[in-house]
Amino acid sequence: MQREITGKQTGFFNKYRTIQKAVDDILPGGTIYVESGEYIENVVFHGKDVTVIGKGDAVIKENTSRSVITVRTCTVNLQGLYIIQENPSNTVHASAQGAVNIKECYLEGYKVNHDSQYPVVWAGGQSTVNIENSTLVARKGETCYVTESTMSI
């Protein structure tokens, strides 16, 4: 496990082609730097405080109908990232006393018309979300949804 990890999509010997692999291997309190590129994945943070910083145009898109970023029972700092939801779900989902600090990010919700509404940011289960100097784009429905939680924008 490491205190700092740089994730990038290229490089034959690069161990961290996915952000999730970096999350799995980072020490609690560590920082993950994400190089420019498009990362197609769902990233789950559970029980480990982590900072993720985008370098250049680091884009995270999901690859299933789950939230792009899920945070449970830990604190996650997201900075300088483009996070885009392309299927019916939330872009960022915080629950189970998770805390998310979003700074200088672009978050885009589900684009296609759908009967259900999927907020860009969903906060529940006594979680906390702080959003600073970021852009949130909702295609249909609410931008943010808060239940039994705290959100500041």
Can you tell me about this structure?
With 153 residues, this protein is mainly beta. It has one helix at 19-25, and strands spanning 2-7, 26-34, 37-40, 43-46, 50-54, 58-61, 69-72, 75-79, 82-84, 92-95, 99-103, 106-108, 121-123, 128-132, 135-137, 144-146, 150-152. Strands 1-2-5-8-11-14-17 form a 7-stranded parallel sheet. The chain has a 5-stranded parallel sheet with strand order 3-6-9-12-15, with no helix packed on it. The longest helix is centred in the N-terminal third of the chain and has 7 residues, at 19-25.
Topology:
Blueprint: E1 2-7, H1 19-25, E2 26-34, E3 37-40, E4 43-46, E5 50-54, E6 58-61, E7 69-72, E8 75-79, E9 82-84, E10 92-95, E11 99-103, E12 106-108, E13 121-123, E14 128-132, E15 135-137, E16 144-146, E17 150-152
Parallel strand pairs: 1-2, 2-5, 3-6, 4-7, 5-8, 6-9, 7-10, 8-11, 9-12, 10-13, 11-14, 12-15, 13-16, 14-17
